User: Fold this.
Amino acid sequence: MLKKDPILITKICILIVIGTFLFSFASYAFNARVQAQAAPTAQSTDGIIRGSENIPNISLSTFFSNIVETTGIYAFFYGSAEGGGPRTEIDPAGSVFVVFGWMDLLMILVGFLLIYLGAIKNFEPLLLIPIGFGTVFANIPLANMTSPGVWNEATMLFEHQGFLSVIYNAGIGNEFFPLLIFMGVGAMTDFGPLIANPKTALLGAAAQFGVFGTLFFATLANLIPGVSFNMLEASAASIIGGADGPTTIYIASKLAPHLLATVAVAAYSYMALVPVIQPPIMRALTTKEERLIKMKQLREVSQKEKLAFPIIVFALSIVLIPAAAPLVGALMLGNFLRECKVADRLSDTTQNALMNIVSLLLSLGVGSQMTPSKFLTSSSLVIILMGLIAFSLASASGVLMAKFMNLFLKEKINPLIGSAGVSAVPMAARVSNKVGLEEDPGNFLIMHAMGPNVAGVIGTAIAAGVMIAVYGG
Assistant:
């Protein structure tokens, strides 16, 4: 009968649910009455439940008023400070910065723009999507996701610390995440193209002209009213030209911790915008004939060469520039795990699981620093501009070095691979290949561009080491 009447089955199920609910409610009411009789002191003589003495009575009108004042719309118009109005924060220069509600809204829109560029326009989605969400999270009114928390002497822990603040303090405010990222980059990198064609290392070295050249522009920036950079701050800003986020974080944490947020955001933004910034520079500095140059296939690199390379580079960094040895060493450790062929599990973990987790956390942490007090100041805007100048100079220097080398080489170098001398691996190499394919669909430059690209990673780490050694004592 039940099989033939599904409606009856439905009615029975509904009755069972209703009966269960009524039985549960009756049991709860009975138990509550028994407990109240057993503990008559649970309420004070004036009828107030114990523990509620300090909780204020709220009228219905006050209740609805509080709801309105804790909405995002209200905060965007009237500010998110307690009681309404703008709040105050400390900017990177140590000055008091007044944050109005519309500034939070503006930064949230910037965050959604980054998400759009990553998810829809496919501009380095692995970077821009988490950075964009981190930006939105950090600027949600009253959410306190970047709250530094309160130090409890008894427990020796921060209490009420925001989610993004935990991430930032755990790995970005120090050298933890940058070194892990370098290990992952090393494990994912094949130095074969550089070993097969060593002269392309000059292109990676040439890109560092953008880094050091920007130090000069930093002195000129001091002529702008309200802007004042010392050499430590200028070094942290100029390293942005290497388009290497981990190195930028590393050197900023050593030389100018108060600028870490701004330079990290700028570095990762330019890394993600490599496909937008570099092509116009490459086309402006090369002729069609130069862009059509075809390079012969690279020779095969032996296993012994690949094993010896990371050890030799690491040893040289220890002997010549110890300040760069942590970055170079982490990079070469990851690469040695890849090439030795006896630690495949470690290599696989480093270049996949570990790299993905750290990249996600680092990107969220970087996005968390895109707040009005750290982003909408004159000094921060100048740093971002200086970073753009440094990155553009680095890209141009690599192209011009390739053109200069062609004056003396029998086998010409396609100047397009010179722009890959910045250390945005493998983004810059892909851009060089893409621009080359636009001129000649049969001209594949990706492997040739990887030579200066990985050389740029090493070069930027060395440049950072030089600045730390000279200015960091």
